[in-house]
Amino acid sequence: MAMTMEIDLVRMDVPASQKTICSDVRKAQASFFSSVITLEQARACCKRSKYLHFASYDSDVGLAKACAQAKCTLVVAVSDVLNLPPVEKGKKIARIKRFVALCRHYFAEVKLASLARNEYELRSAFEMKIVREYFGIA
Q: What is the b/e burial string over 102-138, where b = at least 16 CB atoms within 10 angstroms of the residue's CB?
């Protein structure tokens, strides 16, 4: 019997009954969650992963279409923006907003996650809601 696991990527909570399976999204199987840097890796991983974190957020029509066809959810991480200098932070936020708009145009699903590396990078549900609205993620 196959066991399904749903993780709330916004808060990275795992249901209590499944704590033994995976308590950290980054340690999940590659078929469930992949984090990639290059565009070529992202295009390859979108066909085999359920959730894809593409760290550079380059606006690419091919990636948006491939994710929409493969029913792969693109993950936008708040932790990618937190520790950047102000000028770089503004550039990254603008890139994320363009990326989200392109994904929504091609009906690719986009989720917001904290992907916090430590407790100081965690955000409250209210903060995540504001960030989600600012990036245009429904």
A: bbeeeebbbbbbbbbeeeeeebeeeebeebbeebebe
